[in-house]
Amino acid sequence: MSALDSRNIDTPDETRPFKDHGHMDIVTIGDFTLGKGTFEPGWRWSEDVKPIAGTESCQARHTGICISGRMTVRMDDGTEAAVGPGDVMVIEPGHDAWVDGDEACIMYDTGVAAYAKQH
């Protein structure tokens, strides 16, 4: 990698489909990975990604921003929070999440190097 490198998220290095209800577009530059998640209405981690991840709850640490739509995140301890447009987030491992409403939730996330990746 040179001292300056850039790629456009609209031409991702890979696209990881969820079981249903969306996908994650991935761009990796050196050791930096960014994902653009499109979580369609009806998406729920425990239904759409759990079969891919093979864990009881999401074990990724997410850091990013919500661009559109809304999502609720429930931690394994029962704590819940909703994120919406403009919300910057840090979500630690050990959670489920789902799209609220009938608008797709679009998020940019740096915690996706192994997220929704077939093993």
Q: Layout of SSEs?
A:
Blueprint: E1 14-17, E2 22-29, E3 32-39, H1 45-48, H2 50-53, E4 62-68, E5 70-75, E6 80-83, E7 88-91, E8 95-100, E9 105-109
Antiparallel strand pairs: 1-2, 2-3, 3-9, 4-7, 4-9, 5-6, 5-8
Protein name: Cupin domain-containing protein
Region (Disordered): 1-22
Organism: Microlunatus soli
Could you describe the 3D structure shown?
It comes from Microlunatus soli. This protein has 119 residues and is mainly beta. The chain has one domain: Jelly Rolls (Sandwich). Helix content is 7%, strand content 44%. It has two helices and nine strands. It has a six-stranded antiparallel sheet with strand order 1-2-3-9-4-7, with no helix packed on it. A hairpin with a 4-residue loop joins strand 1 and strand 2. It is globular and about 45 Å long. The two termini are 26 Å apart.
